[in-house]
Amino acid sequence: MLFMLFDDDIIGTEVKDSERLVAIAPVSTTHRTTKGYGDVERRMLPLMLSWAVTVHKPQGTNLNKAVIDLGRKKIGKGQVYVVLSRVKTLHGIALCDLEPNKRLKKSHDEKKLREMQRLL
Questions:
Q1: For the CA atoms of 47, 82, 54, 70, what is the dihedral angle to 10 degrees?
Q2: What residues contact 10, with CB distance under 8 A and at least 6 apart?
Q3: What Rg, from alpha-carbon coordinates, does the chain have?
Q4: What is the pLDDT along the chain (120 residues), one digit of tens a residue?
Q5: Could you tell me which SUPFAM superfamilies the record lists for this protein (predicted)?
Q6: Cβ-based neighbours of 58, under 8 Å, separated by 6 or more
Q7: What is the pLDDT of residue 120?
Q8: What is the reported pTM?
Q9: In 3D, which of 67, 62, 73 has the Cα closest to residue 50?
Q10: Contacts with 118 (C-beta within 8 Å, 6 or more apart), sequence order
Q11: Which of 6, 51, 58, 97 has the smallest number of Cβ neighbours within 10 A?
Q12: SS3 letters for the chain?
């Protein structure tokens, strides 16, 4: 059994010392061997490898999926375009902390701001 601690307080159950942990149990599958030597059991933890990068790192790459946090740090509109344009499809984009008022502050951005608010 593996216990993981996530940044989000909503995820997990309180175990001890006010920490919210998620229990991940191993998964087993059994396969018959090809030469008749019996069965083989494979046990693994159902985890998916992931990593975090800054907006500059994915330039020149294509991503299938991305979780993009636009709220914590100050990020320019050009950088938002760069990171959004790296993901191959709209279904692969997950936006966190999107605040249109933080992104568009000039008067000529009012049309863009209305469109973003309509889409939310």
A1: -80
A2: none
A3: 21
A4: 888 877 766 776 656 665 677 888 899 999 888 887 888 899 999 888 777 787 777 777 888 888 888 776 666 667 777 888 888 998 888 888 776 655 555 655 677 777 777 877
A5: P-loop containing nucleoside triphosphate hydrolases (SSF52540)
A6: 66, 82, 83, 86
A7: 73
A8: 0.48
A9: 67
A10: none
A11: 51
A12: CEEEECCCCCCCEECCCCCEEEEECCEEEEEECCCCCCEEEEEECCCCCCCCCCCCCCCCCCECCEEEECCCCCCCHHHHHHHHHCECCHHHEEEECCCHHHHCCCHHHHHHHHHHHHHC
Tokens of 22: 């998620």
Q: Could you tell me which residues come within 8 angstroms of residue 63 by beta carbon, excluding any fewer than 6 positions away?
A: 86, 87, 88, 92
Neighbours of 2 (CB within 10 A): 12
Domain locations in the chain as residue ranges = 1-47, 50-119
- Token look-up 């018959």 returns 32
